[in-house]
Fold this protein.
Amino acid sequence: MSKLKATSKTVTTALHKKYMWTGTRAIAEAVKLADVDVIAAYPIRPYTGVMNSLAKMLANGEFVAEIIVADSEHSQFEIAKHASAVGARTFVGSSGVGLAYAAEPIIVTALGQLPVVAIAGCRALDDPGNFGMEWNDVLTFRDHGWLMCWARDPQEALDMTLVAYRVSEDRRVLLPHFVAVDGAAVTHVSTPVEPPSKDDVAKFLPAYKPLYPLDPAYGPVTKAQHIAPSLIGPELRKVVDNSMAKAEEAIQEAWEAYSRFVGREYPPFIESKFMEDAEIALVTMGAYAKDATHVAARLLEQGVKVGVMRLRYFRPFPKKELVEALSRVKALGVIDFSYSFGSADASSVLFNEVRSALYESGSRPLLMDFMFVGGREPSVGHFEQAVRLLQRSAEKGKAEKHVLWPTLRSEGS
Amino acid sequence: MKTLISKYDQLNWVIIHGRGVLNTGHGSTLTHTLATAAMLSGRESYYYMRYDDSPERDNIPMIFYTVIGNPRIEITLHEEVEPVGEIFNAIVVMEPTILISQTSQRALLFDGAKKDAVLVVNTSLSPKEVIGLVKKRCLAQNWSGKLVTLRARGYDANIAFPLLAALTKAWKVVSLDDLVNALDFSGASSKAGVVRKVYSEVEPVDVRISAAEAQMTRARKSRQTCTLKKGKWDLNSYRSYQKAAAKALSYAERISAMPSWQALPPGLIEFGPLPGEKNVGFTTSFARYLRPMVNKTKCTDCKLCSLYCPDGAINFDRVEVDLDYCKGCGICARVCPSKAISMTTEFLAAEGLSEKEIVTVEDSLVEYGY
Amino acid sequence: MSEYSPIKTVGDVSSVDLYTSGHRTCAGCGAALGYRLLLKAAGPRTVVLGPTGCMYVANGHQFLSSPYAVPWYHTQLGAGGAAGVGTAAAFRVLMLKGKRKKEDVNVVVYGGDGGTGDMGFSGLSMAMSYDYRRFLYVLYDNESYANTGVQASSSTPWGASTTFTPSGKIKKIGNARMKKNVALAVAAHPGVRYVATATLFPPLDFINKARKALEADGPAFIHLLVPCPKGWFADPKYTVDLSKSALETGLWVSWEYENGELTLSYRPEPRKHVKAYLRMQKRFEHLNDSQIEEIERMTAKEWEYWKQMDKQRKIILPWNAPPWA
């Protein structure tokens, strides 16, 4: 679904070579192309492949970086944070409970405004152990100042990683960045990927130059001292808040530049299919947008006016674009691979963000939450059913039940 | 937007100053007993050590509060009670050198005090001497209140009890009977005798000092304001912010010297001194109540004192004590092989006054029964 | 050990402070004194990582104030090892790739016993298993989590009163665990190039060990006993006296380990009875004479091991029957 745009000025050749790569392998390629300096590794499924690939590349001298095998995810993310403070471009990542173990440095990295880029290989959280896919592992950190984007396939995972470095290191932003890839669906399935050339990347991504490097050659920088909140406190939070606000324009500009230098174009915040006349919409993130789109295309043939919106960014949350796109939609279904136990209506994270974004908008479509939790894979049948339910509810003007667990085995259903 | 409601209107607020570890036990006993006395007389009361000072640190000034409702307390008490405005009805000073240095928040002693506040000082100085020091060192407004001075250790090793009695005599918000009830309640009935004795012997005096008489007010009016270089946040602009804040004579001034958020860079960045410089943003003379005196004739210039000062307050080349930073810990006097350093009181060295309510940490730890 | 030669007199120590005056530490703070001496040893081409603890909160806790004349970054309580490794890795690779001028830059972590011996043990171990040169982790041991109000850590000695192990009517002993020897555990890491213990006495011992450590061909570790006036409830003026007494009684053993050889730095001959040290600190006030004798017995027994190590120049793990056996 990516369009190759050959302009005479910027893209060097019309056809680049394609490889069969998994999402983790594709991201490793992006890390290499970005000439990352420090990588901190620790194994946990399903993200580990990226580190295996990088370790191999480094062992073969394909690029130069320090790769440190840490003693835990807590150390792993801390290593990345401090390497970034000195002035190294860094890469790190984890999945599931590994991300939970890294919670402390994850939070501190954003509040210290270091442009670390991390892969999140989305995986169901323990307990019990489960290799299935859920988003909660990375969504746990949604409030702490990390940028977050979701890739639909290995190609986009590669592209998003390169753009992540540019946006994170943008001096208006200077916030760390998660590139989330659905466990198994994107991390482990090999699909055709076309990497950009090193030259094109060099034009797109300038070198990382921190504002205040932690380096005696620069000066006596004192970073992150303990403060007294009567003297300074809200002000420090506001700086982070302001940087996140600036991220939107940096993201927009980065994708425009990516299109110019690399030749692949994406709508920055939301990828919409069939939304022009849609009365029913499905909103989701990541790989399963493809299945939802497949279902929408078939239902369109039958005259159902259904469209699909795939949020590429979760942070910053694209409220404006979402509200605009939904202005004529009567019923909206959120396909959500997360839970939020005890939240209003016992719903889920993406659903609550969408609902909150729509609260003040003129149009308030009927909302339904389709929760795919516990790591069980959804089928296109589930999405078709979701559309039918949305249709029926739209006709009635209300939903009988608006939070559903389609893959749940339950008595009487 | 001007606000009409004051957080502190209905409350009786006592602020108690002491030094870390030296007075921790005394302060705990004092505030606990005072709050209990108020509670037993039917009023809601709270007490706490200012959280920001926790852990309290040896010799660093620290603050305790007791708040007594009228009769209820209808607000939340946060650790960061900024001494700005008119809050404190009574000020108790457990360690007298605080009169001539600064409080825990590096504020003037009377910052945040009501104009009719009661001041209780543990000291051997006369009321007249204390009033002189108040005018000189810690008043930047007018004061029309009461003063009680007493030599607490003359009555009891645990100075909390004599000070409570003195406060009760001058302040009247808590009565002597309330206090004695509180002693019974806390298992300290044996101190009732001391408390009654002090109560009968201390004599609060009325004090009237106009703002014009207070040297601090004059000092503040005459000092120049520092114009800050806004815009780029770098070592130079940071230094000018530091220097402006360091000149602050009150907590309100310190706060107003802080940058607004727009001036701040991303990444929690500050700048340390350059090699050879010291931290101009934080001087530590406020921790000192004993001062080292160097006898140059006995000194052999071995430099052990300079090496061993945890605060780097003894110049390595000239063996001179930097009074902006010396905390009076006494290590230099202990390590000097020729006994060229002796410790005197800060009162004597700075003010030429002989203050007898000075005690070492060693003895103080025995005092409050640790 | 290319360029190291010991400083012989106090007058030859650098007069410049890189941990400068102007911090809210206790009067007489042993940890602050250690910091000051450490940075004198390290010099200006140093980056310091400061895990949470007294040496974080007491040195700041304001705004527009900093006592660090070298680049300094906070790190989390258990993250000292990782922070050091991340910093060292960045310098190494940036120099290797020509993104930064090649020169020696020291990476120093100054972390407390709580953050290093407990929470950060695994990160410390990881740091000691890599090969970064000019990498020194100094554990400042005040034998408690002092910053949070003197709670017991695994470095708190048996019989010490802390706020998590107070002496009471039923549980009288205070801390019932034995002090763990972090330095010996670090010495067991094959890649570590220099391990030492020290305290604030004799005057030049720690500074020289720190200087030597930074010249080692790989990661280095120093376990520094720092008396703590507040945590140990001793008068601030006795901080150096306590260091000396710890050595004289054998309750702290000062040694160096490099190239597989152990060398004692101080031999208490004759060793003084532990009560000389214990009775200076009110955290041991609740101990009765037989408990003090128990400490004396354990110290004497352990000291026999150190005498053997001194003779054989090898590490032999001390074994003591714990007091509850």
Remarks:
- The longest helix of chain B spans residues 24-40.
- Residues 11-217 of chain B form a domain with the Pyruvate-ferredoxin Oxidoreductase; domain 3 fold (CATH 3.40.920.10).
- The radius of gyration of chain B is 22 Å.
